[in-house]
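Q: Structure tokens for this one, please.
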Amino acid sequence: MSISRRGARRSVRILGVASASAALALGVAGQALACNISEFSAEAKCEGGKGSIVVTDKDGSGTPATITVFLKSPAGVETPVGQPQEVKGSREGTAVTFNEDWKPNATYRVHVKVDTDRVHIDEDIIGSPLTTPAEGCSKDESTPPATPSASPSESTAPPAEESSAPTPSASESTPAPAATPGGNAPSPATGDSNLAETGANSNTGLIAGVAGVLVVVGGGAVFFGMRRRGANNRG
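A: Here is the predicted structure, written as tokens:
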């Protein structure tokens, strides 16, 4: 039984449609299996008391990718961590480790680069930059608490300095000037009476002499007066 031209054309058309559908399906499947940036993840870990940055690739196609990690300072300056590493992902996940003694609350940028005939990736992983935990791998590596303010009793003001000059005592006062010889100032000799201090002692001898003379004259007058009265009585 021969096949007509019309039937042959129909068969070729059907075969072409089927081939195109198969090619499209293979293309979609190939894209689904290709490397994708969403298949990469990063985590800050502690192993044996030491820190590390671990990047995991879950690309089932096993497309080679280059991973680079950068430490970002608060000022925005980036420092590479170690050397770039190449990884071939798997459905279970393939990890590469960057030894890094990270500090609490540090920031890291993780970059992925893939350059093949089918896939081209040159960007940071989703969720980058990566921030490390607030507590470090060592117990003494943690965010320090705020410094308490100094209490009034802990003031650092220096104590008042004591005066180096001693206060002069009464005994150390300026002595009085000495009396000028021959002046009217009284002598400071100990034991002098008030009269001596006023200068009355200079007339004491004269007064005593006059008083003695008067006593003698008065006694003689009394004596002669009594003798004369007695003589008159006898006459």
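A few notes: The mean pLDDT is 73. The two ends are 239 Å apart (CA to CA).
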